[in-house]
Every structure is written in C-alpha cells, then in structure tokens.
Amino acid sequence: MSKLSPNALFCSYRANAVLNQKIWRMAWPPMVANITTPLLGLVDTAVVGHLGTATHLAAVAIGASIFSFLFWAFGFLRMGSTGLTAQALGQGDDRRVRELLLQSILMGVFIGLMLILFRGPIIDLAIRLMAPSAEVEPWARLYCEARIFSAPAVLAGYALMGWFFGVQYSKGPLWMLLVINVANMILDYVAVYGLGMASDGVAWATVFAHYIGVTVAGVLAWHKLKGFSGHVPLSVLAKWREYMALVRVNRYLFVRTILLLLVMLFFTAQGARQGDSILAANAVLLTFLMIISNALDGFAFSVEALCGEYYGRKDKANFKKVIQLSTYWALFAAVVLMLIFWLFGNHIIALLTSVETVRDDAALYLPWLIFLPLLGIWSFMLDGIFIGTTSVKQMQNTMILCVVGVFFPVWFITQDLGNHGLWLSQAMLFIARAITLYWCYLQNMKKGVWFANS
C-alpha cells in the first residue's frame, strides 16, 4: 500500500479542518437557540403560577401542548426548505435559492391562514381530546382562540429557518428564536401584571412575540438575499405548478411527522393507563429525550445543509467526508450525554420534581435514557442525510415500516413488562429507524442513485 506524501497528508488535514469549521459553524447556533426554548416555558409557568390559582396554570399547560403538537405537524416546512435550498446553493442556482425562500414563506402563511379559518372545529377537537376539567376548560379554550392567530407567523418562521439552514446561515434561526423568546418573556409580564390578563394574556404575548420574531427573520433574510443574484418573477409565485417540488417533498415529510406524533401520543396515553405516578415519571424522562434532541439536532442540521450542498454539486468525496466528520462529533456528544445522565441523572430528576413517588419511578426507568443518546444518534444523522438529498419518500416509507412493523409489535408483546416494555418499544424504534435508513443509504450509494457510479 502506497504511503501518502507529507504534502498530501497536510492537504488532507487542512480539508478536514475546513469541513470541521463549517460543521461547527452550522451546529452551535441551533444548540444555543434550543437552550433558550425551555426557558420560555419556565417563564410562562412562573408568570401564571403566581396568580394564586392552578386553573390558569393548567389552562396554559393544556393550550401549549395542543399547539406544540399542531405546529409540529407542519415541521416539514423547515425540513423541505432546507434540503431543496442547500441543493440549489450547491448548484449555484441563485434564482432558485431566492424562489424557494418566497415559495416556502407563502406556503407557510397559506397553511397558517387555513388553520385560523378552521379554528372552530380544530379547537373543539383539541379540547375534547385533552378533556380538561370544567373549571379549566373555558380558560384553555380562551388561550387556544388567541394562540391560533400566531399560526401564519409560526409556519412562516419554520420556512425561514429551513432556508437559513439551507444557505448555511445558522445564526438566522438563533436570532429569530432569541427575539421570540425574549419578547415573549417581556410581553408575558406586561399582559399578566400590567394589563391584568390571565392565561389569555400569555397566549397573546406568544402571538405578538412570534410576529416580532418572524419580522426580524424577514429582515435578516432580505439582507442575506443581497448575496444572491437575479430576481423571482411574480408568475413563479402565482402559479400552483411552480410549487410542486416543495409539495412533493413536504407531503412525504408530513406523513413521517404525523407518524412520530402518533407514537408520542400513544406513548403518553399508555403511560397514563399505568397510573399518575408513571405518567408523571415519563413526562420527567421525556425532558431527557428533549435534551438529547437539542444536543444532537445541531449536527443533524449541519448534515442537512452541507450534504445538500455537496449533493447539489455532485461532490461525492466531500459529501461522504461531511457525514463522517459530523458523525464523529455527534458520537462524541452522545457519549458525553450518556456520562452526564449516568452520573447526574438522579440529580436532574430531583430538579424536575419534588414528588418522591415520581422521583422513584423516574429513577427506575432512567437506565433507558442513559443509553438512548447512543441508540438515537444514528437516526438523527441519517435523517439529516436524507433531508439534505430530499430522499424523503424513503424517510416516509422506512418510518411506516418502523412504526407499524417494530414499535407497535414490540409494545404488544412486552405489555407484561409495563413501562419497561414501553421504553423498550421506543428504543427499538430508534434502532429500527437507523437500520432501515442505513440500508437505504448503502443502496443509494451502491446503485448510483445520488451520485453516478465511477
């Protein structure tokens, strides 16, 4: 085997260093932004929690949960925009980069307006499913009737975030989320203590905060557009067929997201059937899952953007190198998380709840969360590859297979294990997603689906 010359080794080192810098430049802003998001929930809770009654606190909790699920269902607006924009960037198609920004925003605004138009049946169904008490129900409904008006801003914000990641400007989402969260904190205080409002005030604060944030994001996007030549004719925005690329990508991502929501709802419902203590313990442990997601998402976003760019350029060597280096960094982060959960998991649980029975139950199932970063990292990274290449039909099909063929069957045959069986099902879902997507990845590379075989 021939040895590399010192010059070749140096060039390889320099190339890897440049890619590592690009990966971290993409990864750290969403990580920081993700840290601020839980703070928003804490401020909402703190402001409403000092009104002297648990009614408003329960109303905000129910309303916030409803809109987390509702808006997450349209998360495809971010993912689809990222993949297509990254590819256009790699192809040097400046007009397409501009076009995708405007089309994605308009699609988000349109869906948001449809949600407002049909808010009556949407809110009725959501309230019925959540089944709040008679005392909480009117305040939860009031929260929802206000919060639904944030839909156009929230969904346009998803589109902007996706575009920012696609053009590798990850500070854009950071600034947008920071503005939203800070504005929300200030407006919460003003609405509740300044204007004498209750849970409805928290909802309206969130609505205005999202419009402020998306306005800031729009200004940042306008400045970023100055680096791209050309213009977008109005005909491109007015004709439905011009949106078909986005629609094709987003429909598969929508099905995939709905399946993930179904799993989450089923997980919560099955925990509730085992008693309030198990339900509460699972809610505490899902915070660990949120920490895992927040930590690894940054590297997944890097893969989406950079793989999309190199896929657009048909640069197979750098495409594979980005996957390799990003996975190394994500694996390092996963191991760190495992150590933190192993050493300090019970302390984290104690910070999240003071109820002794809930602490005991959460500690019993904590080992599942200790190993979950190592089990979950592979599906996070593979999701990034398939979003970047917009191979989203494969993402949808593998998710259907994993949910229907793995998650539910594993849960069914392990029901006697109780909550351990439920967490085993979740762990097996991560493993199944990783195996099926990796098989698709190998087939796509072997058969020249993404790059011509040489």
Which whole number gives the mean pLDDT? 87
Largest sheet: none
User: How many beta-strand segments?
Assistant: 0
Outline? globular
Compute the CA-based radius of gyration.
23 Å
Low-confidence stretches: none
Global structural class:
mainly alpha
Count structural domains: 2
Proportion of helical residues = over 70%
How many distinct helices? 16
Indicate the proportion of strand residues. Answer: under 5%
* H/E element order: HHHHHHHHHHHHHHHH
Head-to-tail CA distance between termini: 21 Å
Key terms:
single chain, about 450 residues, mainly alpha, 2 domains, 16 helices
How would you describe this structure to a colleague?
It is built from 16 helices and no strands. The protein has 454 residues and is mainly α. Helix 2 packs parallel to helix 9 and helix 5 packs antiparallel against helix 6. 43% of the residues are buried. The protein has 2 domains: 210 residues, no CATH class; 203 residues, no CATH class.
